[in-house]
Amino acid sequence: MPNAYISGTGGYVPPRVVTNDDLIQQYGVDTTHEWIHRRTGINERRFADAGVGSAELGEKAARRALEAAGLEPHELDMILFASLSPDYCFPGSGVIMQERLGLCEGPKARFVPAMDIRNQCSGFLYGLGTATSMVQSGACKHVLLVGGETHSAALDLSTRGRQVASLFGDGAGAVVVSATDEDRGIRGWWLGADGRHVEVLCQKVWDIKQRPFIPLDEHGVGQVQPEAMWAYMEGKKVFRHAVERMCEAVLTACTAQGITGADIDLWCFHQANMRINQYVAETLGIPEDKLVHNIDRYGNTTAATIPLLLDEAARDGRLQRGMKVAMVAFGSGFTWGSAICDW
Ligand code: ACO
């Protein structure tokens, strides 16, 4: 059985910076920089312009990951796209990105499978588990895994929505998972879910049990009520479960590998809230200098946080060949996961 390793990383965030003060000045949100920064660690985030969607952000990150891996798009055997903000209800953003990568035209066209993953903040790790299995089984040699989000289109950027709107930003991260005979790569992945908490963190938009699924006004125009249109979150409950499940996910991974936290050289925690991550790190005795962050600059980019962290660390030299890397995430569902990789 081949090993599955990360042969290339890429990241892309849109150029428009929106600071905490911009939320007040440009959008009229009743908040303060101090409130947001103290509770979440966020200073600013990126918002894509209208007309830009998750597949476009994902394509930019994917091209960088492919370049880092020394591969052309047509050498891919599969595409996985993790997102809670896909371009459309259907089809998924994976096929949109496949077409954008030029895989559907010309002599090098390759109609490889493209699959979307809808596991929110855990989407990247669910994708990593899938990509690793595809490679280790021999079904694929190179799998492109992208996490891409365009949250800014679906945030209630008013005082009513401030609890959620101040947390999220746009961006994409990508990795290529490739087969190798070398003794390196993804050593294991562990995923979990608890569907009792669906209603604690969700964005429903519609209810498919209704006829029609979106109510119509007297002119036949669909009417989405604000409580369905914007994400609903019970912040304190999410915080508590995130800390518990992330600690558990770390312990599960270390126990399965027969290692302790001290054996890990670099920790990539999902970037939902700096305080969640500090709490987990303190609980497990993880030293600050082994953690990487980007929530201060990008906010919560959901499925993109971990691949963006990997890409930044790989490019600025913090992530070196031979290091042992742990990745941990928690999100809506609830879902969670962890993975250990020898880089
Ligand atoms: N600016 C100013 N005031 C605000 C803001 C804001 N942006 N948001 C909420 N408030 C107000 C509330 O209206 C409330 O006012 P009130 O007391 O007059 O009613 C007060 O601040 C306290 O609100 P809480 O929601 O109780 O604040 P809390 O201390 O719980 O912090 C937060 C909110 C930061 C969202 C916190 O609960 C949290 O981080 N939870 C984790 C959620 C999370 O990380 N979600 C990310 C998505 S899921 C994932 O990726 C894991």
In the CATH scheme, the class of the largest domain would be Alpha Beta
Query: Helical residue percent?
Result: 25-40%
Mean pLDDT: 97
Major sheet description: 5 strands, mixed
Backbone CA Rg = 20 Å
What is the CATH third-level topology name of the largest domain? Peroxisomal Thiolase, Chain A, domain 1
Low-confidence stretches: none
Bound molecules: acetyl coenzyme *A
C-alpha geometry? globular
The structure class reads alpha/beta
Specify the CATH architecture of the largest domain. Answer: 3-Layer(aba) Sandwich
Summarize the structure.
The protein is of the alpha/beta class and about 350 residues long. The chain contains 11 helices and 14 strands.
Protein architecture, described:
This protein has 343 residues and is α/β, with parallel strands linked by helices. The chain has two domains: 3-182, Thiolase/Chalcone synthase (Peroxisomal Thiolase, Chain A, domain 1); 186-199 and 230-342, Thiolase/Chalcone synthase (Peroxisomal Thiolase, Chain A, domain 1, 3-Layer(aba) Sandwich). It is built from eleven helices and 14 strands. The strands form four sheets. It has a five-stranded mixed β-sheet, sandwiched between helices. Strands 8-14-13-11-12 form a five-stranded mixed β-sheet, with helices on both faces. Strands 2-3 form a two-stranded antiparallel ribbon. β13 (324-331) and β14 form a beta hairpin. α8 (235-257) packs across α9 (274-284). The model has no long low-confidence stretch (mean pLDDT 97). The structure holds acetyl coenzyme *A (ACO). Acetyl coenzyme *A binds at residues 31, 35-36, 39-40, 121, 162-163, 166-167, 201, 233, 235-236, 238-239, 242, 272-273, 276, 300, 330-331. The site of acetyl coenzyme *A has 23 residues, from α2, α6, α8 and β13.
